[in-house]
Design a protein that fits this description.
Order of helices and strands: EHEHEHEHHEHEHEEEEHEEHEHEHH
CATH superfamily of the largest domain: Thiamin diphosphate (ThDP)-binding fold, Pyr/PP domains
CATH topology of the largest domain: Rossmann fold
Number of domains: 2
Distance between the termini: 28 Å
Strand order of the largest sheet: 3-2-4-5-7-6-12
Radius of gyration: 19 Å
Oligomer: single chain
Largest sheet: 7 strands, mixed
Structural class: alpha/beta
Length: 330
């Protein structure tokens, strides 16, 4: 059942409210702009798409449109970030941190500049735009950076909290957002503790740990509900912080289940599942199943069709869970 201690949206299984995570980002920037005069925002000709157009209108002197020049945007932000400003840079994730990866590495990460990278239109959720605009490698290429924080909000409310919270630190961040509207799972009362994993679905005797990141958490919860109806108990973790990774909560869960499924709209190589696998291999080797893109680019198409085709649906999660239980039981 849903963890009542987290004050989650109890209507998510019947008639969930939908909002894009990028909208939470835009709202948080407006609030930060009001509170902190050192907040600056940069974009690469994508103000409306990345929801920074509101900040542009309200704080034009602290907004910089760098044009279609992502490397320049990163370098300018790096200078601002070491000069007392907190710089948020906004573009599609395939372009930032994709196209400008080396510039970010050298100017932002190496210098530990106070820059927050907002990667929008991530995953196959980008749908019809096709593989050239579906960032499915961005977690892998950012979590390898030293001292970089990597955050993937589950919904628009958590996106607001993650964005707002990032301003309290001078560390560089990568925060991942999606374009399409997705179900709102949390509420304003749901606690947000960066770096901590929360257990959204609890059971008395869970057989499998289901760890999901981003909007895939919704499909994981649907799968958990359906499995419960069939007498299969699970535990669902919201892994919104991929770096740092909350090892204690994962280890506590797998000590009960001895099996874990990781779910992400990303390549399985180098993503959230890989991060968990790396940790478990060092601490507690555990049976694991990986749900995500399996060494392939996705096609252009309707988001729902793509989720079904590439095995990210609730039905697929249910099937993989049952298969993992069979493996665990020999």
């Amino acid at each position: 059942m849903l963890n009542k201690d987290l004050y989650l949206n109890e209507n998510i299984f019947e008639n969930p409210t939908l909002e894009a995570t990028r909208d939470g980002y835009g709202k948080a920037l407006l609030q930060l702009g009001e509170e902190n005069p050192n907040i600056v925002v940069l974009t690469a000709d994508l103000a409306e798409s990345t929801r920074v157009d509101g900040f542009e209108k309200k704080f034009p002197d602290r907004f910089f449109d760098c044009g279609v020049a992502e490397q320049n945007m990163a370098a300018i932000a790096a200078g601002l970030g070491v000069s007392g400003k907190t710089a948020y840079i906004s573009s599609y994730a395939v372009f930032s941190p994709g196209k400008n990866w080396e510039t970010l590495r050298t100017t932002v990460v190496y210098n530990h500049s106070n820059v927050k990278i907002a990667g929008h239109h991530s995953g196959i959720m980008t749908g019809p735009d096709g593989p050239t605009h579906q960032a499915t490698e961005d977690i892998a290429i950012t979590r390898c950076w030293p001292k970089m924080k990597v955050i993937v909000p589950a919904d628009s409310i958590e996106a607001y909290k993650a964005t707002y919270n990032s301003s309290k630190s001078e560390d560089p961040y990568y925060i991942r957002f999606t374009r399409d509207k997705t179900p709102i799972i949390t509420t304003s009362e749901t606690p947000y503790d960066e770096g901590k994993i929360q257990t959204f679905w609890i059971s008395n005797n869970p057989q499998v740990t289901i760890a999901a990141t981003g909007y895939m958490l919704y499909y994981a919860l649907i799968a958990a509900l359906n499995l419960q109806k069939d007498g299969i108990e699970t535990e669902v973790l919201n892994v919104s912080s991929i770096k740092p990774l909350d090892q204690d909560t994962i280890l506590k869960s797998v000590s009960r289940t001895n099996a874990i499924i990781t779910i992400e709209d990303h390549q399985v190589d180098g993503g959230m599942g890989s991060a968990i696998s790396e940790m478990l291999s060092r601490t507690r080797p555990t049976l694991q199943e990986f749900i995500g893109l399996q060494n392939t680019f996705a096609e252009s198409g309707d988001t729902k069709d793509l989720i079904e085709k590439y095995g990210l649906s609730a039905k697929s999660i249910q099937e993989k869970t049952l298969n993992l239980i069979k493996r665990k039981n020999g």
